[in-house]
Amino acid sequence: MELRALILKKSYDLFYKNGFHDSGVELLAKQAGTTKRTLYAHFGNKEGLIEAVLNYRHQMFMMQLTDYCEKWDVKSAEDVARGYLGFLTDWSSLEGFHGCMFINACAEYSAAESMPHQIANQHKRKVRQWLFAQFERVGAHHPQQKADTLFVWGEGLIVTAQTDQKPLALNNELFIDLIK
Fold first, then answer.
1. Cis link prior to 167 (omega < 30° from 0)?
2. How big is the CA angle at 165 (ends 95 and 122), to the nearest 5 degrees?
3. What angle do CA 109, 111, 116 make, to 5 degrees?
4. Fewer Cβ atoms within 10 A, N terminus or C terminus of the chain?
5. How far apart are CA 59 and CA 122, in angstroms?
6. CA torsion, points 111, 116, 121, 122, in degrees to nearest 10?
7. d(Cα 56, Cα 153) in Å, to the nearest integer?
8. What phi, psi does 8 have (nearest 5°)?
9. Which of the residue ranges 22-36, 45-59, 131-145, 155-169 would you say has the lowest mean pLDDT?
């Protein structure tokens, strides 16, 4: 693996587990088996590395979401909702789930003008756009309303899993009936 890609992957793992502020450059370099100087040579500074990691996570998330949903023959709004909720449920059930990196970034960088907050905003908008495109593709009535509603439900699922709210009498099928 190329050194830049290795630093990116190891930094992603550390940021995801420990957060951005609790992951110092020295520790990030050590995890990647390199030096701070080399890390800086590839990313400029810690902020450059955070930006690269968030962009990496966005690409990974969208690819995983698309791949997951392509496994089904999606023909209806209900299929879109089932696929998206299934993806989020499976992802949030994985060992090592530490929530959404973008929600975490907004928590650590609460100023709306901060770079991590801006990237998180872009990521969430792109997820909403993806959902809209899926609803539009299947000819759903009110695709924007359905996309926004499903998005908010999904964000709730993520935060619920992240805060370990178990057991939960959640019925995704009941929700899916609501968006018909």
1. yes
2. 70
3. 45
4. N
5. 12
6. 150
7. 25
8. -60, -50
9. 155-169
